[in-house]
């Protein structure tokens, strides 16, 4: 973030004036030559409107950030005066009310978001997230609406103990087929209690209404609102060997996909922002393609078409071939040098994202391209990291203004609210109320939420180890209250109640064992990191009847605030030196492994091995946790500065070794004093306690800009 008037070297030549704004040339060219044409909006009124919107909302945006700082300062002071108290009691709750951190509950209400696509409003199923800057992944994610269950099982560790010989292993294949047929016994039972494994001829279903169509020899079934394709093909190697001729089971998998401009990308300047916007434009126009080489073979990937079937009465129909796409904008914190305001200061990045991603979605709404995203005529924006109802109301008014700028009907821009900051969890009903006419989801972004929990409690004392945090009372209360409050606000059947990311992309057996808890909790969706995970997680929505779970949970009283407000402090006896060392090293390794690719290569989401060599998805939210955790232990003397420095150096060598095969990798170990990545990691820890709400973006952006300037 830079201050008004603080223009970067050489930046002036690269800029063009538009309606009093100083705009990077790349962005001007993109908007005027690529994004605006075809929308019916001319450049001049667009810039006039954008400038007016920025003038109106930028000061308010700044004021909201000042409120965050003011409230955090009050928390810090309270905690300093009540050191090592886990809080949660009446006095603490009253204090939060007095300082305006807690606001009155709204009277009972039900959300009313208008026309919403069924994937968000009515059908329960997985939600995939994908970084916007990677077109190859992006296309894969859009096409992840359908996935082969056989491939997902065969290509992952999903079946514990399945043999895995070189080439195609028939024993492994048999284990996959057995697993899938046992799954079909639940999702598509056969008449007379026959088992799928025993089927020899054509299937007869216990409920014939499940069979809703066919395409050639492929049968289309529906169960819990989700479709299943049974591919019968006796000409294929698998079908030929199968007594029933079943060659594959394809599941409707990622019902929706979030295209992420936020925590999984490194976008620090106009060039990065334009690359991100251009990919979103390619999706909204249906024209995005990617060419790459895989296993030595050239490949071209494009968006999948819709799928055609014949209904039992002979009429033809189609089903979506692609996930319903949402776009995650950045939050209210950062500013961008892509646009400078008349006072010379950078424009709030969230405002620019709202304008540009909505403008781009007009291409879909106008229906000019070959494919359609929203059949309901909506634009879906996920808004992360909002703190409390005032910020939600700000987003609501911002979206009103964007609708006016683009000539969109009121509330056609929908919002997904990430419940991932403590002040939002505490005031969740009021937050939902603030956006009740456009809300399409709430989601427990538990990773950021952990980071905010640590930062909120920064001065209260040392927090518990990360493993213990998973069992902390605040976390259970947060997850429970999110579902309970969502149901009380009428989200069932109208909007998603979502659960967070499965952050171990290679541990699919564990995911299969654990993530059924998400639909079982009444959540209608949960995040997955990959298409394979989407297909496997889809099986959970066949096993669990989410509507029934929601109806049951709607009867529960809402969990009180006290456990939510109980701080996750370390046990009074503290931890043994070996535990402290292991915790520090694990945090330092994940942090460095992520930061080095962010700073040196601009990669915003990575799979980084933890100390047990398990590859974990790391993004800015997990970085927020690890950096805040070390910063907290440093502040309270659990670890010393020299110990942190030594751990960082040891882990730098380990991370260097892990990346030895990457030709683009720049090792940190040999030159920690000149490695910008190492310095960024250091700053994230040693300046961590003072970062706004513990966010990592300000430091990451500053160091990445320096790294880009250096090459
Ligand atoms: C707290 C939060 O905010 S969570 C939300 C942000 N996080 C995310 O969005 C995570 C998304 N996931 C990812 O980015 C990746 O899966 C990572 C970084 C975790 C792992 O990436 P990699 O190590 O490259 O994955 P891996 O080698 O196992 O698999 C790559 C293959 O899977 C595909 N793939 C992996 N993740 C995704 C995805 N999210 N969407 C689409 N395709 C994906 C790739 O396209 C590739 O297939 P291809 O060769 O046919 O193109
Ligand atoms: O955005 C998701 C999170 O867990 O944070
Ligand atoms: Mg988050």
Automatic annotation (TrEMBL):
It is an enzyme of class 2 (transferase). Residues 168-195 form the Malate synthase G alpha-beta insertion domain. Keywords: Acyltransferase, Cytoplasm, Glyoxylate bypass, Magnesium, Metal-binding, Oxidation, Transferase, Tricarboxylic acid cycle. Its cofactor is Mg(2+). SUPFAM superfamilies: Malate synthase G. The active site is at residues 328, 619. InterPro entries: Malate_synth_C_sf, Malate_synth_sf, Malate_synthase_TIM, Malate_synthG, MS_C, MS_N, MS_N_TIM-barrel_dom, MSG_insertion. Its EC number is 2.3.3.9. Gene3D superfamilies: Malate synthase, domain 3, Malate synthase, domain III. The keyword Oxidoreductase does not apply. Residues 27-80 form the Malate synthase N-terminal domain. Residues 579-660 form the Malate synthase C-terminal domain. GO terms for molecular function: malate synthase activity. Glyoxylate binds at residues 328, 420, 445-448. Acetyl-CoA binds at residues 129, 136-137, 264, 301, 529. It catalyses: glyoxylate + acetyl-CoA + H2O = (S)-malate + CoA + H(+). The keyword Transmembrane does not apply. It is found in: Cytoplasm. Mg(2+) binds at residues 420, 448. Monomer. Involved in the glycolate utilization. Catalyzes the condensation and subsequent hydrolysis of acetyl-coenzyme A (acetyl-CoA) and glyoxylate to form malate and CoA. Belongs to the malate synthase family. GlcB subfamily. This is Malate synthase G. It comes from Sphingomonas morindae.
């Amino acid at each position: 973030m830079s201050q008004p008037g603080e223009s970067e070297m050489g930046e002036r030549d690269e800029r063009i004036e538009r309606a009093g704004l100083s705009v990077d040339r790349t962005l001007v060219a993109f908007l005027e030559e690529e994004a605006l044409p075809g929308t019916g909006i001319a450049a001049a009124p667009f810039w006039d409107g954008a400038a007016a919107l920025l003038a109106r909302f930028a000061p308010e945006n700044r004021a909201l950030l000042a409120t965050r700082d003011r409230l955090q300062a009050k928390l810090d002071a309270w905690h300093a005066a009540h050191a090592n108290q886990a809080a949660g009691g009446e006095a603490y709750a009253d204090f939060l009310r007095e300082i305006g951190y807690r606001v009155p509950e709204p009277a009972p209400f039900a959300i009313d978001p208008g026309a919403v696509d069924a994937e968000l409003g009515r059908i329960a199923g997985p939600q995939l997230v994908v970084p916007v800057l990677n077109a190859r992944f992006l296309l894969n994610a859009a096409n992840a609406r359908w996935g082969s269950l056989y491939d997902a099982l065969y290509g992952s560790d999903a079946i514990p103990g399945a043999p895995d010989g070189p080439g195609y292993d028939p024993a492994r294949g048999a284990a996959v087929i057995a697993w899938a047929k046992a799954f079909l016994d639940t999702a598509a039972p056969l008449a007379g209690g026959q088992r799928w494994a025993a089927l020899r001829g054509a299937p007869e279903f216990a409920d014939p209404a499940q069979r809703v169509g066919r395409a050639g020899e492929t049968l289309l079934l529906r169960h819990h609102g989700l479709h299943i394709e049974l591919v019968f093909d006796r000409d294929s190697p698998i079908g030929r060997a199968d007594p029933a001729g079943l060659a594959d089971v394809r599941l409707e998998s990622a019902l929706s996909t979030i295209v992420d401009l936020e925590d999984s990308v490194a976008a620090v300047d106009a060039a990065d922002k334009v690359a991100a916007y251009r990919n979103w434009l390619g999706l909204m126009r249906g024209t995005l393609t990617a060419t790459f080489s895989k296993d030595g073979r050239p490949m071209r990937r494009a968006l999948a078409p819709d799928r055609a079937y014949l209904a039992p009465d002979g009429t033809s129909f189609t089903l979506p071939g692609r996930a319903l796409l949402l776009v995650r904008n950045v939050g209210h914190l950062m500013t961008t040098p892509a646009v400078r305001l008349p006072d010379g200061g950078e424009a709030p990045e969230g405002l620019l994202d709202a304008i540009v991603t909505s403008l781009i979605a007009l291409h879909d709404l106008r229906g000019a391209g070959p494919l359609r995203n929203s059949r309901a005529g909506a634009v879906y924006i996920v808004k992360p990291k909002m703190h409390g109802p005032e910020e939600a109301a700000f987003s609501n008014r911002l979206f009103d203004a964007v609708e006016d700028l683009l000539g969109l009907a009121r509330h056609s821009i929908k919002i997904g609210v990430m419940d991932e900051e403590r002040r939002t969890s505490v005031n969740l009903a009021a937050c939902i109320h603030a956006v009740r006419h456009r809300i399409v989801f709430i989601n427990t972004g538990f990773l950021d939420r952990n980071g905010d929990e640590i930062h909120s409690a920064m001065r209260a004392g040392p927090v518990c180890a990360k493993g213990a945090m998973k069992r902390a009372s605040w976390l259970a209360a947060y997850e429970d209250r999110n579902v309970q409050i969502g149901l009380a606000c009428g989200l069932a059947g109208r909007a998603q109640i979502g659960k967070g990311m499965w952050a171990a992309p290679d541990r699919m057996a564990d995911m299969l064992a654990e993530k059924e808890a998400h639909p079982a909790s009444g959540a209608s969706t949960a995040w997955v990191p990959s298409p394979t995970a989407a297909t496997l997680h889809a099986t959970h929505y066949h096993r669990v009847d989410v509507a029934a779970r929601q109806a049951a949970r709607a009867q529960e009283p809402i969990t009180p605030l006290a456990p939510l407000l109980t701080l996750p402090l370390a046990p009074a006896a503290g931890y043994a030196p070996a535990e402290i060392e292991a915790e520090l090293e694990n945090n330092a390794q994940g942090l460095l492994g992520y930061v080095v690719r962010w700073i040196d290569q601009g990669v915003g989401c990575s799979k980084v091995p933890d100390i047990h060599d398990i590859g974990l998805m790391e993004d800015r939210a997990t970085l927020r946790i690890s950096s805040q955790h070390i910063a907290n232990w440093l502040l309270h003397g659990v670890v010393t500065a020299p110990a942190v420095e030594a751990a960082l150096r040891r882990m730098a060598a380990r991370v260097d070794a892990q990346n030895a095969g990457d030709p683009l990798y720049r090792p940190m170990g040999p030159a920690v004093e000149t490695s910008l990545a190492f310095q960024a990691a250091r700053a994230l820890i040693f300046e961590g306690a003072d970062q706004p709400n513990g966010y990592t973006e300000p430091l990451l952006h500053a160091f990445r800009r320096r790294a880009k300037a250096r090459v």
